[in-house]
Design a protein that fits this description.
- The structure is a single chain.
- It is built from 6 helices and 4 strands, in the order H-H-E-H-E-H-E-H-E-H.
- By secondary structure, it is an alpha+beta fold.
- The protein has a 4-stranded antiparallel beta sheet, sandwiched between helices.
- Helix 1 (3-9) crosses helix 4 and helix 2 packs antiparallel against helix 4 (88-105).
- The chain is globular and about 50 Å long.
- The two termini are 33 Å apart.
């Protein structure tokens, strides 16, 4: 799948097929995070791949994260606050977003998770204080195959480009 097609096809998936994600596919997805750009090339991220059902149960305790119990993989993105105190959040989210697009291209579904108790996640996964838990990604094969990605025929509406982009200065009319 070409990158623009993957971006158009990407949807938040909250219902997963129980089959596991093959190691080679998961490695390809993780590799896209590894090679992501970062400020000063600090690469202040660590990714924890959680497959263990009991640990996924702890991760699912967030208000909007209940479905993580059926996601075969959860990738927890952590940022190193000491190595890159100003940019660890931005850099880690760039890497995670690259993983989202790569996963889509591989036929996987994902959902970005910001609904979690950082202390619970930190304790369950042994995350050192130096790292912040930035976000989590549910990853797996969608239970239902998403419909074809057709430009402008999305299941949700998005603003027209003219409403969100201005050139050379902020346009208050958009």
């Amino acid at each position: 799948m070409e990158v623009f097609e993957a971006i158009q096809a990407r949807r938040s998936v909250r219902s997963f097929d129980p089959r596991p994600v093959p190691d080679d596919v998961l490695t390809k997805v993780l590799e896209t995070g590894r090679i992501a750009p970062s400020a000063s090339n600090y690469q202040p991220w660590r990714f924890i791949v959680v497959r263990d059902a009991a640990k996924r149960q702890v991760l699912s305790e967030g208000k909007y994260a209940k479905f993580l119990t059926e996601s075969p993989v959860v990738i927890v993105g952590c940022g190193d606050k000491k190595t890159s105190p100003k940019w660890y959040v931005v850099d880690t989210t760039i890497a995670l977003q690259q993983m989202v697009i790569a996963a889509t291209a591989e036929g996987l579904g994902t959902c970005w998770i910001g609904s979690f108790d950082e202390d619970s996640v930190r304790e369950a996964l042994g995350v050192p204080d130096r790292f912040a838990v930035v976000a989590m990604l549910a990853v797996g094969y969608p239970k239902q195959k998403p419909g074809p990605a057709v430009p402008h025929a999305r299941t949700r509406t998005v603003k027209d480009l003219g409403k969100i982009v201005s050139y050379d200065e902020f346009d208050s009319e958009t």
